[in-house]
Amino acid sequence: MKTRFVLIETSHAGNVGAAARALKTMGFDDLVLVRPRYKNVLRKEETIQRASGALDVLANARVVETLEEALDGISHMCATAMTPRDFGPPTRTPREHFELLLKGELDARSPAQIDGDMSDNQPTAGAACNQKGVAFLFGCERFGMSNDDVYRCDVALSIPSNPQFGSLNLGAAIQVVAYEWRLALGGFPVVEHTPEVHRADMAQVQGMLGHWEQALTHVGFLDPAAPKKLMPRLNQLFNRAQLTQEEIHILRGVAKAVLQSQPPTR
C-alpha cells in the first residue's frame, strides 16, 4: 500500500533529517514537506547530517505549498494529534487503528467522507485493500496540527505515552508511527547475528569427562578407590549445560593444563 509521511510547517531542519532516517529504517521513502520554515531545508547541512545515511529519502522528498498537493493520490489520512478536539475523527492508538484498517473493520464511512472532504468516488476507509494510499500527517514542532487539518483526517493517532510527559520529539514520533505501520504490514525478518551453535554429541561429552576424571585424580580431588558418585553427577551437570563443541575444547584444555601441572605433595 502506498505510504506517505507529510510534515506540515516544520521549523527545525534537523527534524527533517531525522524524519528521513526514521522512514528509511522502516522501509519507507515518500516524504512531503508542506510550507517548511526553510525553503532549502532538504539541502541544509543540519538536515543532511541528521539524515545519516538516508540521503536517498531526502533526494526523493518534495516541498509543496498546500496540504492538498501533499495528499494527491491519498485516500486515507491519519493525523497525529495529542491535544483532544471537541469534535472530529476518532482518536486511536496507531496499533489499534492499523489493525482495524488492514482488516477492513472501520466504519463504512469515515468522518472525512461525511464532511464531504473526499470525492464521491473515493474508496471507504473500511476497505483497506481498495485504498489508494495512506498518509501520516505531522504538525509543526511548536503548535502541532491545526484543527482544520485534523478534521479532514480519518483518525487522530495518539501514541500511548506517559500522561505526565507525553510530548515526543517530531523525529521520535515519526519513528514510532513508522515502526507500528511497518509492523502492521508484516514487518521485516529478524536477522540472526550470532553464529550457528554446534552442540557436542554424546561421544564428545564422554571423552571430555574421561579427560576430566584423569585431571581430578591427578590433583587428588577424585579417589579412584572410592569415587562415589562424582563422575555421574558431573555427567548430569554437563548434560544440563548442553555443551557446544567449542566449550568441550575449552574444558579439555583445562583438563590438559591440570594434568601438565605438578601433582600436590602428599
UniProtKB/TrEMBL annotation:
Top-rank taxon: Bacteria
GO terms for MF: methyltransferase activity
GO BP term (any one): methylation
CDD domains assigned to the protein according to its UniProt record, in alphabetical order: SpoU-like_TrmJ (cd18093)
UniProt entry keywords in alphabetical sequence: Methyltransferase, S-adenosyl-L-methionine, Transferase
Pfam family, one: SpoU_methylase
Domain tRNA/rRNA methyltransferase SpoU type span(s) in chain numbering: 4-179
Statement: the UniProt record of this protein carries the keyword DNA-binding: no
Protein family membership: Belongs to the class IV-like SAM-binding methyltransferase superfamily. RNA methyltransferase TrmH family.
PANTHER family documented for this protein: TRNA (CYTIDINE_URIDINE-2'-O-)-METHYLTRANSFERASE TRMJ, TRNA/RRNA METHYLTRANSFERASE
The protein's name in its UniProt record: RNA methyltransferase
Lineage of origin: Bacteria, Pseudomonadati, Pseudomonadota, Betaproteobacteria, Burkholderiales
